[in-house]
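=== Structural record ===
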Amino acid sequence: AGPTGYDTHRQLASLGVRCDVIAPALIPRRAGRRVKTDRLDARNLVRLHRAGELTPIRVPTLEEEAIRDLWVRGQHFDEPATEAAFRHYLPALDTRRSQLRAIDAEIEVAAKLPPLAGPVARLRCLRGIDILSAVTIAAEVCDFRQFPSAVSSMAFTGLVPSEHSSGARERRGSITKTGNAHLRRVLVEAAWSYRHRPAIGPELRRRTEGQPPEVLAYAWHAQCRLCSRFRSPRRRQGRQRRRRRRRPGAGRLHLGTHDEQDRRSVTDGERAGVHHGRILADSMRLRSASLVRGSFRRTRDVRFRSADTSMVDRRCHVLARSPTPSARPP
């Protein structure tokens, strides 16, 4: 709820999309919840809306909001200094709004005239780029042929990762931010549009009318490629997080694999070797010593550090021949 929510509701309603505006104070919250992300908030709102736990509010019309503005102008304060500051702020706000509307109108006119007409029309075929963004990109870059490759153009905007590598070690950090700040801001804002699946909506279809087929094909290819690039690193990050949960640097020492047919042929010496393998691992105080014990169809092994492979292999080979599990390792 609020000015931003009301404007979003009106825009969605004009496109035929059903939308409800919810007051933040009326949203049920779970006690003891300490994790807050956009994904969790969106999922929680969907579940609450499906269960009917959200209370929609009435969205005021434009005329009603205009009356509210009049009510704001009718505000008065008892403190003279506060009253004077409030009276100065209102005209300043009206001036900035009128200036913003005038500048937007001038930019729209300039975008239809050469030399900006052609580049702006082609840039608007890309998702997330409209008149203001297209004019900013065309005015800041001027000539795209000055960049021999995409890497050089990204270096111009400061959107390449920083690097501190030496020898065989390769270390990369966040983006450098050493290029054109205006162009970088516009490109980052436009890039967020490619987190959604590739699609051509009514507004994008209107912007692409009358453009060459090769431009439309390039814009569609950009949607598919950038969306896949946005989603693939998230999958790689998930795999990396799962790898970090495992114990790094741990290997396995197989003490014997027995099939179902060899159940009865397992000797006491082999069992002793498995038993002493655990004793040996504990006595050596290995970082991740554990014995995986299961059915005879599974591999019985001892987890160990890679540096101790040969020593554990030799000692467990000797222990496997021990007649009883009571013997201690040398």
The longest strand covers residues 250-257. Confidence is low (pLDDT under 50) at residues 247-310, 315-320.
